[in-house]
Amino acid sequence: MKYKFKVGDTPTVRQDLSETTRPCGLRVQPGMLRLRGKKVTITNAWNAAMGHGARYAIKECDWTFCDDCFDDVPSTIIITTDGRTTTARLKDGKQTVREAKAVCNSSDTFSFNVGASLALSRLLYGTDYNPNEVKLTTTEDKPPEKHTYKVGDLVEFISVPGGSDVRAGHIGQIVSLEDMVEYYQVKDLNTSKTWYSYGSNFKPYAPAVREVKRPAKVGEWVKVVSSDVSTLPVGYITECVGRWEHGAHLRNNRGNPSGMYDSRYVVLENYVPEKQEEPKPDSPISISIPDSDKPLFIKFNGVRYEPAKE
Fold first, then answer.
1. Strands 265-269 and 171-177
2. Domain limits for position 265
3. pLDDT, tens digit, for every residue of 109-155?
4. 228 near 256, Cβ under 8 Å?
5. pTM for this prediction
6. CA torsion 230→234→237→243, rounded to 10°?
7. Chain centroid to CA 4
8. What CATH number does the domain containing 162 carry?
């Protein structure tokens, strides 16, 4: 069988590669999509069973590729101009495969850079491509793509990435941020296997709150289970702010520390209190202007000051 690519070749993965089954029967997996638009290196080539055509192994990942996964666009592009019309041509040897044009408006000053950029963009992306501002960019020019998670974050899978044996409820850890928006390399901590997945397949991991009977440490949150203190009622959740010989100092419902025996509360492990907006302090100075026939007065830190009588 004659192969389109040989070992050592560096074809480009199709920019429009999608998670579908190709005409040759190959199923494109999510992990292959991170290589869209990138050059890869062929490490092996073989003939698929049942006449399904060529299959290739590449250096950059463990998935199998076929001829249809790679871009057939020739690498030679020639851009010419006559001073008004700029033409971009795709060449395969001496044959022109495709071309696109950009014509300068009669009221505009001709610019080869603008014409070449527009013609090239139309050649690659279609004749409808007509941005307000045209600029040839490189990968370095592109703004970083948004990722909700960062490397090291723990996540919980809520659905199964295609081609993996991940199960809903498995806990994963973000290993790397991939080029595509919201696309990650994630290690399944339940199986120690690594998969590529979109962020829609998981959610932030929030460990369940556990009630543990033990002495609280400063900064931990507790729930009162038995009480003879009115400011620390049963069921009240509060923070440990100190320790004493037989128990903990807990912040009571008036905001002050109260002593409580360790036997009267449980520690809430993994508990995260809701953030509350702190009230803005009142200004220490207030100025009041009463009726026009009465003198102005000022309050400073709650003390009223009036103008001296003449």
1. unpaired
2. 210-269
3. 888 888 888 888 887 766 655 555 444 444 444 445 578 899 999 99
4. no
5. 0.36
6. 70
7. 37
8. 2.30.30.40
